[in-house]
Write a structure and sequence with these properties.
Blueprint: H1 2-18, H2 21-24, E1 28-30, E2 36-38, E3 43-44, H3 49-53, E4 61-67, E5 76-78, E6 84-88, E7 93-98, E8 108-114, E9 121-124, E10 127-131, E11 136-140, E12 151-154, E13 167-170, E14 176-180, E15 196-200, E16 208-212, E17 219-222, E18 229-233, E19 246-250, H4 279-285, E20 291-293, E21 299-304, E22 318-322, E23 335-341, E24 347-354, E25 358-359, E26 364-365, E27 369-374, E28 380-384, E29 390-395
Parallel strand pairs: 3-26
Antiparallel strand pairs: 1-2, 4-29, 5-6, 6-7, 7-8, 9-10, 10-11, 11-12, 13-14, 14-15, 15-16, 17-18, 18-19, 19-20, 21-22, 22-23, 23-24, 25-26, 27-28, 28-29
InterPro entries: 6-blade_b-propeller_TolB-like, Beta-prop_PDH, Quinoprot_gluc/sorb_DH_b-prop
Keywords: Signal
Protein name: PQQ-dependent sugar dehydrogenase
Length: about 400
């Protein structure tokens, strides 16, 4: 029965790939093993001034355009002087985006690096670190914001596949962490670094798997007070509209978060079984998620609020971009959410923060939010990798 389910899932995926995007909007497939799989991709429309104006945020917050016509911006980081570096995986570039007069709108958008598939970015000690699929690069940041020639630190990261977009982030103690997503929806990976979080020293030493069983944890970071590591993992596709839900994990050294054998709070998908033990035995050893979120919402960027411009109740909370679903009847995601943390650093809930990118009865969207970073003035910068807009969310209320 499990093998039959796998074959059906592969067939459905292949059929989806063969369909034009317009056909995917009305396509629905019902699997025989009890999984009703819907495929619906809201049509992309322009991010007009009128549409941007109707975005909704909590009272006192404003959502404006920081930059536009930037291609397909993905991840972004902010330097101490306020310069913003943004990756575009489609062009394989890193852009310098600068708001010199500090009016909340960038005047300069300029490419400063180019290598195929550049995606993840991290800053440390005047250097910009960049990842492509298999490479990790570093460059010095020059006084004018441009970069020196890129130096290759690693060229043997795990192969691409379904999740080729590596992300990187520095821990409070200066270690570099790299997320390597799975090559597939659910399978036994040959490379033990796939579907993991990898810890890397920038001198080339000490590379090791920090945590495994993470299908695709693009957004991750450290709680400002407790220094605990948190990340939002992508759930398995093809299990229906409501499964697999996205997982918020406290990521601990040596822990196994279950993929591909276990999901949610111990559920077992119809996919490959672990060797030498039952799925139930394997599930008992895995670490369960702290919070679950809407299936297929596709969490991407994650940042903790350490600024002082937001109200006190937002301090040390996290903000996460939900890129948006494609394989459920009613769209999920297409928004930014807030993860609440209590004074002890425990995640207590997830709620909407910025919404409104879905329009026309959820049949259309004008933004697939992706990267997120906190600017030096405390505002949030959010990329849309579909329409090329970088949004700015600031607090001006009392």
């Amino acid at each position: 029965m499990r093998q039959q389910a796998i074959s059906l899932l592969i067939s459905a995926a292949a059929l989806l790939g063969a369909l034009p995007s317009s056909a995917q909007n009305d396509y629905q497939n019902t699997l025989k093993d009890g999984y009703s799989v819907n495929v619906f991709k809201p049509q992309q429309v322009d991010a007009t001034t009128e549409r941007i104006a109707q975005l909704k945020a909590p009272a006192g917050f404003t959502v404006t355009t920081f930059a536009e016509k930037t291609g397909n911006p993905r991840m972004l980081v902010v330097a101490a002087n306020g310069d913003v570096y943004v990756s575009d995986r489609t062009k394989g570039t890193v852009m310098l985006v600068r708001d010199a007069n500090k009016d909340g709108k960038a005047e300069l958008v300029k490419d400063v690096a180019q290598k195929a598939d550049l995606h993840g970015l991290a800053l440390r000690d005047g250097k910009l670190y960049m990842t492509s699929i298999r490479e990790l690069y570093v460059a010095d940041i020059k006084p004018d914001g441009s970069l020196s020639d890129l130096k290759t630190l690693y060229n043997d990261l795990p192969d691409a596949g379904q999740h080729p977009n590596r992300t990187i982030n520095f821990s409070p103690d200066g270690k570099l962490y790299l997320s390597a997503g799975s090559t597939c929806n659910a399978c036994d990976e040959r490379n033990k670094e796939a579907a993991t979080l990898i810890q890397i020293n920038t001198d080339g030493s000490g590379r090791r798997v920090y945590a495994k069983g993470l299908r695709n944890t693009i957004g991750f970071g450290w709680h400002p007070a407790t220094k605990a590591l948190w990340g939002f993992d992508h759930g398995i596709d093809w299990l229906g509209d409501e499964d697999q839900r996205e997982e918020l994990n406290e990521i601990k050294e040596g822990a196994d978060y279950g993929w591909p054998y276990v999901y949610a709070n111990g559920k077992l998908p119809p996919h490959p079984q672990p060797a030498d033990e039952t799925p139930e035995q394997y599930a008992a050893k895995t670490t369960k998620p702290v919070q679950l979120y809407d299936a297929h919402a596709a969490p991407l960027g994650m940042v903790f609020n350490t600024g002082r411009s937001f109200p006190n109740q937002y301090q040390n909370d996290a903000f996460v971009t939900m890129h948006g679903s494609w394989n459920r009847a009613k769209p999920s995601g297409y928004k930014v959410v807030r993860v609440r943390f209590d004074e002890q650093g425990r995640a207590t809930g997830i709620e909407d923060f910025v919404t409104g990118w879905l329009v026309n009865g959820n049949k259309e969207q004008f933004g697939r939010v992706c990267g997120i970073a906190q600017h030096t003035d405390g505002s949030l910068l959010i990329t849309d990798d579909a329409n090329g807009v970088i949004y700015r969310v600031a607090y001006s209320g009392k």
